Amino acid sequence: MNLVILFENDFIENGKARIEGRRAKHIISVHRAEKGKELRVGILNGQIGTGIVSSISDKSIEMDVKLFKNSPETLPITLILALPRPKSFRKALQAATSMGVKKIIVIESWKVDKSYWKSPALEKENIFEDMLLGLEQGVDTVMPEITFKRRFKPFVEDELEELSKDSLRLIAEPSSEQPCPFNVNKKTTLVIGPEGGFTPYEVGAFIESGFFSVNIGQRIIRVEYAIPALLGRLF
């Protein structure tokens, strides 16, 4: 936990917050918090600052909070992700959030197991918690926007053009002969398929929509590893 995320209801009075549960437990056990210790804090979707521990018990911590710095700049990227296995999905959310991705679109693919769509990992509260972990890791406060598209063809034919307008359009594909570019630092729409890969039809649908296929090597890696590998090259 590199940043303690605070919520509006954590504040018991102006400039003073009390936290309990997972966050307090982590600060007590890992950060070895004691009275007077300074912590890096930020309010959800707001500014970052410091929290000075003023009171501590076995279950809660009170802090005097000062917020004075904006959250980091977001990456100019829309991440389109074929739904992976639930465990990979959770790790992928944390990885993308920690690296500054603010728009994530999760789509259907032929090789996505239908049972994945029924996983508790897709429940709102679990998605929120995984993104919160990503924000804590990346020292950021702005929660990403995530949407789900269960029908591949209507998404590609009716929505993809508009949402990727005026951006560099890339689809990660191990069979591509074109390596992923470095340091593009421009508006980008990046597509990452399931671990089994997109079908030729699905790849073709993206190519027809103006996407370029790129690779980061011939090895097949898990989605949660592909995300930081690709983002690290692009930005």
CATH architecture of the largest domain: 3-Layer(aba) Sandwich
Total number of helices: 6
Distance between the termini: 24 Å
Q: Would you identify the regions where 5 or more consecutive residues have pLDDT less than 50?
A: none
Broad CATH class of the largest domain: Alpha Beta
Can you tell me the overall shape? elongated
Question: In total, how many domains does the architecture comprise?
Answer: 2
Secondary-structure content class: alpha/beta
Short précis:
This protein is an alpha/beta fold and 235 residues long.
Report on this structure.
The protein folds into 2 domains: 4-69, Ribosomal Protein L25, Chain P (Beta Barrel); 77-234, SPOUT methyltransferase, trefoil knot domain (Alpha/beta knot, 3-Layer(aba) Sandwich). The chain contains 6 helices and 12 strands. 34% of the residues are buried. The strands form 2 sheets. The protein has a 6-stranded mixed β-sheet. A 6-stranded parallel β-sheet has the order 9-8-7-11-10-12, with helices on both faces. The longest helix is centred in the middle third of the chain and has 15 residues, at 124-138. The model has no long low-confidence stretch (mean pLDDT 96). It is elongated and about 60 Å long. Helix content is 30%, strand content 28%. It starts with a strand and ends with a helix. It is α/β, with parallel strands linked by helices.
